[in-house]
Design brief:
Chain A has 16 helices and 31 strands. Chain A is α+β, with helices and mostly antiparallel strands and about 750 residues long. Among the domains of chain B are: about 50-120; about 300-550, MetI-like fold, CATH 1.10.3720.10. The chains are: A alpha+beta (about 750), B alpha+beta (about 550).
């Protein structure tokens, strides 16, 4: 070993060098660690999208839960029977109405009594009947043994002394404290029904016997001064039912229902008291069944019918063949074996809860047509079933003031497989339909959350886009990859890439503001283009090959697109120039009129053709690039072999190249389809965004993606609507992800195949 | 050699021609789209001739806009009288301005009615701050209600006085927007400071006194600006002009409401060119007016650039790290293959899905949490718990991440093995090898990825609609108020501007030319970025071809 290398070795082990080396190694380790953390972090962050979407959608699938929160006995007189209960919105206070005329306000969690009120029942008169205004329940009335009525309104007043919420009970009498006589008959009111709104109040009473008395109090505002007077209108109805067990009036004070235990229901139109017709008669129950409960679902459109068999069915008016609205059983629910003793409806959603004879509680939702929950609750003697206004608590009352408070967790009852994807028979509709209508101004609106029309619209838009894109993109790519001169290819490929990069907002804007009106004016031109273009090109190419060789040689092999470019332009111009005469001759000068009037085809300006062309434009480059790639990488020896055996270039193309490249072309189409499905801006701007189920080429659609863009900013956080939009996003995500992965796997296989060839 | 027709058919040559035609069709689509955008976008700023339209109800002035041919039957159905022999008629959209007088500033006219219309040289076009353009003949200029000049010199005098009122308007704007804006901003910060102290329970006498003195001094400053403003307002109210419509009704217009006045029919070519570039400059440098249908789009340009800039700061390092990890550090096996496919596919996931993710996760979840921890004083008004610039940038960063990762990985995989091995053999650590040899060689493809990401982000609109863009932002996200960069602010965006003005605007006809101009600007930016990426990539390929040999 010479001294030079000795020195080097010494230098390597020099403390300075060692330290430096250690530092370098440390740095290396740090970088390795950082890269690991960073890389995994980024990958995880990207994957987070999927998990977050699932996290937001999951509560939709979560079923309802119910649990007993407290049980107590209210201190009331033992002879006093409860007429009804009412809970406040925050589930703090509640009212109990007793048949002695005493109203008790109490803490609904502990049973501690906070106030007692006395209804102004006159001396020597007792309460003989009770009713409330229906599902909202705040307004109530008692009928007295002297034939008069007291209407009262229990209230919960919210105040914020010292920034702490305080709720106090109060009582008011909207129609005054003195009892109102319904008719001249002063015998006891056995059944009572009443409704009240801004225009007036209607009271219906049955005092036994063959007549029903109706009293309407209308508020009349004088035009001269702002004085308000109550006008009285009275009427009587000859009822044909005998004993009346149920008496119901809808909120609009238009329809009066009377029914008995056997299930006979008579329905009177009472909107005009001067013209009372014969009742419509409906049998609600089957032979041998008893009607054990009857009440409105929120919104007063549907009746909930509880039967002794334990079945609950929903009825509402549907037009029959003559166009006459008739009550009809829409759907039914089964809970328990025993008879249905009580039904309580939610105040703001189309849900309800039932109580069976055998102590089974069932929670249902009508639109979703599902049973959310059943629970065995103790006590056979339960008499009342009361929902809190937000449907988050349930009060069960037994005789003698024994109460149970149950907490209900039921965030998204309106969602079920059938309400999302199947035809649903919505209230006031004549038949089951697929509908998307997520919001409305009224509180008791039945939301229509069918994703089917949106999914349909998505596929429709994608279909028309593919109709435009596939032929152009695939044939174009085949030519570019296989026949085109390399120098031209160097120009064409970047042009197509630019086409891919064009922002979709610009395509959508042009489609909506320029293409849609232009198409409307030149509809005939568009259809004639479909014929003139192929025929014209065929004719031109035939003509070209008849030309002398010298002329043909002017355009080298592989430069045909340049030659044909002006031809395409000319043919395009020709079809639009011919459009007017053709329209004049065949369609009376106005094809749009002809379509709508003569053919009965509705025509939207922003229709599927517009979307097809605009979105086709967006998808062409995607399919083009990938197809071109697949065709171009077919090994050359295959094609040379085919050509050497005497096949023409096109025969080689169809018999060898396309067959080999077909998986690649297929995956290109799939990825293009995925892009069309998820495209938002073009559909948002180029369609009318109406969620219809119609495949017509002259009508628009609403897609899942556009729907998210339109409705997401207005959806209330964590509401069902919000989560359904997340579900729509998850569907889109899953759909495109599966499509793309499948396409990617196919492409990988193809690549392996090429490398083995 | 001439073939006979049957063999020609059998050889499949017509198919070849057909597919050649599809290439032509694709090219034609791209080219015609770009040409149309260019024509309509650039054409918007050219001063067009104003003609006098003779109408039975009184003449009007107007500019010719687009022309179309419609079936005569449709017009007959609308109640128009046309001879039976006519099948199609040409009509033209006229922009007649004077919306405050007639209530309608666009209408369709039969082409033949305006074929021989005169273009009077003396017509003056007033571009106003409200109610759109006014077309008329200038009568006189007034100062404080007194006639100053009428007759031939009026136009020259008007220009002089317009310059003055423009100057004053600029001063008013400066005070209202910037100075008073800054005071309001400081006031709001003081309020939040006080509330924060209150929440902490640390609001003692001394602190309150300090805040009060500060507030009082701000208030005083505000009042001094107010009086300055009042003086300016009095000054700008001084001048007005009288102009008469084509049918001879005079109208008085205060000069403060007028942006510019010009006589298009008198302009020479040079004058028109000058006017053109002036308008073009206004378009890119001014704030929008009249619900975005007039004026410029500067805030949208600025917002787009800001958002894209923030996004690229986020996406480039993260994307590159992820790519380096996947390619250089992670063990290559089934899992990395799956991850690679997944990342690749995320590029194909619809952008609206990223938008809804950004809204739910970033805005409501992350933003809400940040507000609870760092900005409790402002609650219940959200600071970061509402769509804003930062969330938009972050959402688009996630959206474009796959582009950067894929492109960087491709670059890394193209670096020849020999180079890595050479570096390692010379004793460099892996980190040193990466930093000194591999990354520099892959840098063009990192650039390509970044450019493609920027191009995609600049054109993306759907997710932004959910996470931060608004149709009109009162303030820019970057200004002179501490902390200068306001990541929580909402911003304007070119793409959304197109959607909003084109589809949500109350006066679509008036807005249309501006939308074309905006679209053109956006397309130019994106095409340039993409061409840059393509050329970098091509050069890169050449380089590696040389290396491989």
């Amino acid at each position: 070993m010479n001294s030079e290398s000795q020195k080097v070795l010494l230098a390597v082990d020099d403390p300075v060098m060692v330290r430096r080396r250690d530092r370098r190694m440390l740095k290396d380790r740090i970088v390795r660690r950082m890269m690991g953390v960073g890389g995994v972090g980024v990958v995880v962050a990207i994957m987070l999208i999927f998990f977050y979407l699932v996290y937001e959608v999951y509560p939709l699938l979560h079923s309802a839960e119910i649990g007993k929160s407290s049980e107590y006995s209210l201190s009331v007189a033992p002879t006093d029977k409860a007429l009804d209960y009412l809970i406040d919105e925050q589930v703090e206070l509640a009212f109990r109405y007793g048949d002695s005329g005493e109203l008790t306000a109490f803490n609904v969690k502990t049973g501690e009594v906070t106030n007692r009120f006395e209804l102004p029942v006159p001396e020597g008169v007792t309460v003989s009947s009770y009713t409330n205004s229906g599902v909202e329940g705040a307004l109530a009335a008692v009928g007295l043994s002297n034939g008069s009525v007291i209407v009262f309104q229990p209230e919960f007043k919210v105040s914020f002394p010292n920034d702490v919420r305080k709720i106090t009970a109060a009582l008011s009498y909207p129609l005054g404290e003195s009892p109102i006589f319904i008719s001249d008959d002063h015998s006891a009111l056995k059944k009572l029904a009443f409704q009240s709104n801004e225009d007036g109040t209607t009271l219906v009473g049955w005092q036994g016997g063959a007549t029903l008395s109706i009293l309407r109090l209308e508020i009349e505002e004088s035009f001269l001064d702002d004085e308000v007077t109550l006008e009285r209108y009275e009427a009587t109805v000859n009822q044909q039912l005998g004993e009346i067990d149920y008496l119901l009036l809808d909120e609009q004070q238009r329809i009066l229902y009377i029914a008995n235990l056997v299930g006979e229901l008579h329905e009177y139109a009472v909107s005009d008291l001067d013209m009372l017709d014969q009742p419509q008669k409906i049998q609600l129950t089957a032979e041998g069944e008893q009607l054990t409960s009857l009440r409105f679902l929120t919104g007063y459109i549907s009746l909930l019918v509880g039967k002794s068999s334990g079945e609950v069915s929903q009825w509402f008016h549907v037009r029959d063949e003559q166009g006459v609205p008739k009550l009809r059983a829409i759907r039914s629910f089964m809970n328990q074996n025993g008879a249905v003793t009580a039904i309580a409806a939610e105040h703001f959603r189309k849900g309800f809860v039932t109580l069976g004879e055998n102590g089974m509680l069932g929670l249902f939702h009508t639109t979703a047509q599902q049973k959310l929950l059943t629970e065995k609750v103790s006590g056979k003697s339960l008499t009342h079933l009361i929902f809190a206004p937000r449907a988050n608590a349930l009060l069960l009352a037994a005789a003698g003031g024994k109460l149970q408070l149950w907490m209900v967790e039921n965030e998204h009852p309106e969602i079920s497989w059938s309400s999302l994807w199947d035809e649903v028979w919505y209230e006031s509709y004549d038949k089951p339909e697929y509908l998307w209508q997520s919001s409305s101004s009224s509180d008791d609106f039945e939301p229509k959350f069918s994703l089917t029309p949106l999914a349909f619209g998505t596929l429709k838009a994608a279909f028309y886009a593919m109709m435009v894109a596939i032929p152009i993109a695939i044939f174009g790519a085949i030519y570019t990859a296989y026949f085109m001169a390399p120098r031209l290819r160097q120009v064409v490929k970047p042009t197509i890439e630019i086409m891919e990069a064009l922002p979709t907002v610009i395509l959508g804007f042009l489609a909506g503001l320029w293409l849609a009106p232009a198409l409307e004016d030149n509809l005939v031109g568009v259809f004639s283009l479909l014929i003139i273009l192929p025929v014209g090109i065929l004719f031109f190419s035939w003509f070209w090959q008849r030309l002398p060789r010298k002329v043909q040689d002017l355009v080298a092999e592989g430069w045909q697109p340049l030659l044909i470019f002006p031809v395409v332009m000319f043919l395009g111009w020709l079809s639009f120039a011919l459009s007017q005469p053709v329209e004049a001759i065949f369609f009376g000068g106005d094809i749009r009129n002809w379509l709508t009037n003569d053919m009965g085809i509705p025509f939207d300006q922003r229709n599927s053709i517009v979307v097809g062309v605009a979105m086709g434009f967006a998808v062409i480059p995607t399919i083009f690039s990938m197809t071109e790639d697949a065709v171009f990488s077919v090994p050359k020896h295959l094609t040379f072999g085919s050509l050497a055996l005497g096949a023409t270039p096109w025969q080689t193309m169809t018999k060898v190249v396309i067959l080999t490249a077909s998986p690649g072309i297929f995956s290109a189409v799939m990825i293009g389809f995925g892009r069309a499905v998820g495209e938002t801006m073009i559909v948002l701007m180029a369609t009318g965004n109406t969620p219809i189920m119609d495949f017509s080429i002259f009508q628009g659609m609403r897609t899942l993606a556009a729907n998210i863009a339109v409705e997401m900013p207005e959806a209330e956080v964590a509401s069902t609507h919000f989560r359904i939009l997340f579900l729509a996003a998850l569907v889109l995500f899953g759909f495109t992800f599966i499509f793309n992965t499948a396409a990617e796997v196919i492409r990988q296989r193809l690549r392996d195949k090429y490398s083995s060839l | 050699m001439k073939q006979n027709t049957v063999t020609w058919f059998k050889s499949g040559a017509p198919w070849v021609w057909g597919s050649a035609a599809t290439v032509s069709i694709s090219l034609l689509m791209v080219v015609s789209l770009l040409v149309m955008l260019a024509m309509r976008g650039f054409g918007h700023f050219w001063p067009s001739e104003v003609i006098e339209i003779e109408q039975p109800a009184g003449n009007t002035f107007g500019e010719r806009k687009q022309r179309e041919e419609v079936p005569a039957q449709r017009l007959r159905d609308m109640g128009m009288e046309l001879p039976e022999s006519v099948e199609f008629v040409a009509r033209r959209l006229m922009k007649t301005g004077n919306r405050d007088v007639t209530g309608q500033d666009f209408y369709w006219l039969l082409e033949k009615k305006i074929e021989n219309a005169k273009a009077p040289a003396e017509v003056v076009v007033l571009e106003r701050r409200e109610w759109g353009n006014f077309y008329g003949r200038l009568l006189s200029v007034k100062e404080a209600g007194e006639l100053v000049v009428s007759g031939d010199d009026t136009y020259a005098e008007l220009q002089k006085r317009l310059a003055r009122s423009d100057e004053l308007f600029g001063q008013i704007e400066e005070i209202e927007k910037h100075k008073i804006g800054a005071i309001n901003y400081s006031m709001e910060r003081l309020r939040l400071k006080r509330r924060a102290l209150e929440l902490k329970g640390a609001l003692d006498k001394a602190a309150e006194e300090k805040i009060r003195t500060k507030r009082d001094s701000l208030q005083k400053e505000y009042e001094s600006y107010q009086s300055e403003l009042q003086a300016l307002y009095r000054a700008i109210e001084r001048d007005s002009l009288v102009i008469e419509t084509a049918d001879g009704q005079p109208f008085e217009q205060p000069l403060r409401k007028i942006v510019r006045a010009y006589q298009p029919n008198k302009m020479s070519l040079i004058g028109k060119l000058g006017f053109y570039f002036e308008k073009l400059w206004e378009f890119v440098s001014d704030d929008p007016r009249e619900a975005n249908t007039e004026g410029g789009i500067f805030p949208a340009i600025f917002g787009t650039i800001m958002m894209v800039f923030l996004m690229s700061i986020l996406v480039t390092p993260l994307g590159v790290i992820a790519a380096i990890y996947l390619r250089e550090y992670a063990r290559q096996g089934f899992l990395t293959r799956v991850i690679r496919i997944a990342v690749n596919n995320l590029a194909g996931v619809p952008s609206i899905v990223y938008g809804i993710f950004g809204l739910g996760f970033f805005v409501y979840f992350l933003g809400g949490t940040i507000d609870q921890i760092f900005y409790p004083a402002a609650l219940p008004a959200p600071t970061f718990g509402t769509p804003g610039l930062m969330w938009a940038a972050l959402t688009l960063a996630i959206l474009t991440m796959p582009v950067v990762i894929v492109s960087t990985e491709e670059g890394l995989s193209r670096v020849p093995k020999a180079i890595r091995e050479g570096s390692l053999a010379l004793g460099a650590t892996k980190a040193e090898t990466l930093w000194r040899t591999v990354i520099p060689m892959a840098s063009p493809s990192i650039m390509t990825g970044m450019i493609l990401a920027i191009a995609r982000a600049a054109g993306e609109v759907a997710p932004l609609m959910l996470v931060g863009v608004v149709k009109l932002a009162p303030t820019l996200p970057l200004d002179g108020n501490y902390p200068f960069l306001h990541l929580d602010r909402k911003f304007m965006h070119l793409g959304f501007h197109i959607y909003d003005v084109g589809f949500q605007s109350p006066n679509v006809e008036a807005a249309r030319p501006l939308v074309y101009a905006t679209a053109l600007l956006l397309v130019v930016v994106i095409v340039v970025l993409n061409l840059a990426a393509i050329s970098i990539r091509n050069r890169l390929r050449e380089k590696y071809k040389a290396l491989e040999n």
